[in-house]
Amino acid sequence: MKPLGYTCKYTPLELLEALGGHPVLLNQESCGFPYAERVTHNQFCCHAKAVLEECRRTGLRELVLVNCCDCIRRVYDVLEAAGELDFLYLLDLPHHADGCSRALLKDGLERLAAAYAAYRGTRFDPAAFRAAFSPAPALPEGDFLAVTGARAGAGLLETLRRRSPLPVADLTCGGHRSLPPPPEGLEGPQLLDWYAGALLGQLPCMRMNEIGRRSELLEQPRLRGILYHTVKFCDYYSFEYEALRSRTSLPLLKLETDFTPQGDGQLSTRLEAFAEQLDLRGAPAVHTARRGRRYVAGIDSGSTTTNLAVLDLEGSLRASAIVRTGPKARQGAEKALAALEGIGLDDLAAVVATGYGRSHIPFATGQVTEITCHARGAHHLHPQARCVIDIGGQDSKVICLDEDGGVKNFVMNDKCAAGTGRFLEMMARVLEVELAEMGTLGLRWETDLTISSICTVFAESEVVSLIADNHSAADIVHGLNRSVAVKTAALVQRAGGCGPYLMTGGVARNQGVVQALEERLGAPLWIGDTPDLCGALGAALFALDHVTDKGGPA
Amino acid sequence: MASKLVQSLGAAVAAQVPEHPERARALLRTAYRLVGFQMRHLPPKTVPGARCYMQGATARSMVCALDKPGQAACVSIFLPCEILHALGIPPVLPEGLSCYLVSTAAERPFIAAAEDHGVPESYCSYHKILLGLAESGVMPPPRFVLSTSLACDANQLSFRRAAQRWGVPHFTVDVPWEDSPQAVAYVAQQLRQMAAFVAEHTGRALSEEALRQALERSGRTLAHYRRYLEERAVRHVSDEMTSEMLSVFALHSMLGSPEAEEYARRLADQVAALPRAFRGKRLVWAHTLPHWQDALREILNFSDRVEIVACDMACDFWEAPDPAHPYESMARRLLGSCFNGGARRRVERVLELARHLHADGVVWFCHWGCKQTSGASQLARQTLEAAGFPTLVLDGDGCDAGNANDGQMVTRLQAFLEQLEGRA
């Protein structure tokens, strides 16, 4: 039995089954795109690239594509040129869903049916056609989260379902195809005409002209939050996300993937922080506050540094340490603990870990994501703050707070390093200046240069060109600072952040970036004495809650 | 890098965009009026006269875009505009305005405005600027927005969003992928509905005679342009790198206007008057030309070493208009465009141009965000090279320097020219 691959919910599956086909949804992530990028381009929709890889990997012989977008059209073109499939067809789908469009689609369905029947040597089987209609997948019975937006790969869906505190319904186009059964008595051209109308009458995807009905997708009484998925180099769904952001009252988390298997790191931080925001987190893995001890601690295990804050039981900061993390989170945490003078593990009643390495600290009594910890720490330090901007070594994030310090919304940068501490480190290396010097060097600029590249690699070559053109290091650093500020301000905008602002993370020590960001935002940034410690401080405050029985998300 | 004067103007515009969009608009309008005046009265001597004429006409079109709200019709590049020309409504091409903004070094705040409002970084930069113009308020609301689904997804997204942002009516013409009699009828019907939409929203009745005359002008424009290509096939023309983008205007949003006809006539006459001779290497350029990129201009502008003899964006259809059946005729133009249908159709058009214009090679320019062009790049390279035309797949961006690696692009283009010269 040869499977017939398809990718789009407008594919006439029932018709193909009635002609003896065995449709299979192509939805697997790919570990890389060597074939796809060889026959297309690297700047190409990652889902489309994954489709090409899946065709090759599985040795698929039959494929029916729909003219859904620029990239799928090109997938058809390159497969058609390669000529390796036994049956390849592109069905033309109108953008409108009116009567004329239905007639046009009916013609297209007739041509597809004729081509597939000729290929297989079969005839249309009316009974098989009617039997092929299946009801839409049922929504979970209780509260649930929905993943919507662009197609989510099978691996991503599996991870989301495994990590989410609530059942996850797939409301992307890959998961909610739904056609009513055909009315009795229709046959021949009338049946095909009805079928064309039914296909076009589905809840529209973003490529259709009239998209007003898409709001029905999320009108579900038990829906508690939305995981909005976008795919790199697919542009359709970022537009809907932006519109949804201002329209929905439901908590919304944007996830962008490139259709490769997702590492658990940033994805799980985002999901756990989202669950904390919804107050849906399950019981922590470890939660045993040790009574009768004098202090509590919070450990922020980041990619570059591990930061430790120790509070006494009255909540006053008693000690802190900032050390390089090194290759292993556990060793970084032990190093930070060893750096404390006169305080050891035996003195700590509770230790809450946060940051990327939080699940690898064996002596932690609880874990909370760095989103919630930064919010808590920021509110403690500066209760007026309503927006936290954190630029760390590997990622940057913006967290919007309510008046009680709760997380209203947050966004994080994508995989790209542009706009993070690592970006500045790389540029310092190109300029051959010390990282510490970068912080003040840009303040002495004379010519206003623009570093426009969004990509770290491109920015590096832009900097090299500017050096070759004899621009001063001060001017170049100023340009870099402004580029970080632009990137960060865009994150603030995406999160819907507004002042008063508080900045944390190692980059908050960089005066040049701070100044550029203040100019960009048109508002001052409040920065504490030890901006790197904010997350650890928040974690320590959660540890203190355990000891004083206030509870908390950990 | 643009001249100091242009840089200063760009900086002045950028400074006004966030707080005083109307001031930025006034600055740009004045600048484009001056361009129109210069091209009419003091045209540069190095540039062919027909190009100056068209530059003046497009500059005036940009002034319309930035003039009083509610006047112009905002259109997408492939939308047939004869209906608008017949009614005397100026069509405004925002992608054209993007080119102008880049040439004014003023694109950055518009790109930022779009990205600040959630437009993805991977999106086409022309459309980012278009959306930035709407978001920032620098481009005032037009009377309405008209667009087609041809040639890319961005048309579907940008014009819908811009119309929402401006709060103006929007009409979309859906162009099927397959060219068939049913598809012609489908598109022609939509074009008739569009004519009714335009009449309804302007209060002007469309005269069949005026529409017929507009299509006749389109026919003459196309005939002149094809005559120009015949002449160019046996001649060297010292020209600006981006000149053919003017033909793109003339053969799309301006098609059906007296200005487009005059441009094509002058262009054909002026090139015919040049000596029949070749000089340097001849390139066919696929897709848009980067207005901002002086490093490429240094190689390609007014050069004896290399010239761009044709751009596929100006040659996407050959269908002669049929004024007796205007709607079916415009429908056939859309369906028959080499930007519609499979990639092979576009590659074959580029191949046809390369053969006809005696090209030495092809540059397939992968404009950032254009997945159709980048997705077809390897297919194009293989097909064109198999036919004997060395092909450079050049990654860049038509209007955002931030997405292009300037130095690497120059190296690749120069190495390609050396390769072509080595073949001689």
Automatic annotation (TrEMBL), chain A:
The keyword Ligase is annotated on this UniProt entry: no
Organism phylogeny: Bacteria, Bacillati, Bacillota, Clostridia, Eubacteriales
SUPFAM superfamilies per UniProt: Actin-like ATPase domain (SSF53067)
Required cofactor(s): [4Fe-4S] cluster
Keywords tagged on the record: Iron, Iron-sulfur, Metal-binding
Molecular function GO terms recorded: iron-sulfur cluster binding; metal ion binding
Top-level taxon: Bacteria
Protein name: 2-hydroxyacyl-CoA dehydratase
Organism: Lawsonibacter hominis
Iron-sulfur found in the keyword field: yes
Residues annotated as domain ATPase BadF/BadG/BcrA/BcrD type: 298-543
Cross-referenced InterPro entries: ATPase_BadF, ATPase_NBD, CoA_E_activase_dom, Dehydratase_Activator_Redct, FldB/FldC_alpha/beta
From TrEMBL, chain B:
Presence of keyword Iron: yes
InterPro entries associated with the record: FldB/FldC_alpha/beta (IPR010327)
UniProtKB keywords: Iron, Iron-sulfur, Metal-binding
Key word Magnesium present: no
Similarity section: Belongs to the FldB/FldC dehydratase alpha/beta subunit family.
UniProt cross-references to PANTHER family, sorted A to Z: 2-HYDROXYACYL-COA DEHYDRATASE,D-COMPONENT (PTHR30548:SF2), 2-HYDROXYGLUTARYL-COA DEHYDRATASE, D-COMPONENT-RELATED (PTHR30548)
Protein name: 2-hydroxyacyl-CoA dehydratase
Species of the source: Lawsonibacter hominis
